[in-house]
Structure formats: C-alpha cells, structure tokens
Amino acid sequence: MHDPQFYLSMAAAALTALAMITAALLVAWRGWLALKRQQLNAASAPADSDNIPGPSATQRIEIADLKERIRKLEAIAAGVDL
Fold first, then answer.
1. What is the CA angle 35-32-53, rounded to 5?
2. Per-residue pLDDT tens for 51-72?
C-alpha cells in the first residue's frame, strides 16, 4: 500500500473530481444569477394589465377540473368517503 503510483492516481482522481464539482457549481451559480437578473428586470418593467389576455374558457375548465381532482385526492388522503 506504499506504492507511489497509487497515491499519484488517487490525487489525480481527487483533483479531477474537485474540478468537476467546481465546474458544476460555477454553472449553477451563473444560472442562479441569470434567474435573479431576469426577476429584477421583470419587477422593474412597467405592468401593462390591459395587454394581458385572460384565461380562455378551455383553460378555466381545465383548472376547475384539476382543482376538483385535488379536492378528491385530499379527501382520500384524509380518509373521508365521498
């Protein structure tokens, strides 16, 4: 177990793993910064409520259906018979 080749390969593997973790964290950090920048730009943009269309009838029906399903699932989870 006193082989220098073993220690060299373990150090190289650890250094490679550290580099991969650092690269992944850097990508995540840049993504988080981009998200925060987008949120700040959206918050500072003037809100035009006149140009935003409301949900269509189909979307309202789908939302109502989903709410009903959620209500039924919550009742089942609570042990209530419908």
1. 20
2. 667 788 888 999 999 999 999 9
CB 16 within 8 A of CB 24: no
Cα–Cα distance, 61 to 69 (Å, whole number) = 12
Q: CA angle, corner 77, sides to 72 and 81, nearest 5?
A: 60
Taking a C-beta distance cutoff of 8 angstroms, is the pair 73, 65 a contact? no
* pTM higher than the cut 0.70: no
CA dihedral 49, 55, 56, 58 (to 10 degrees): 180
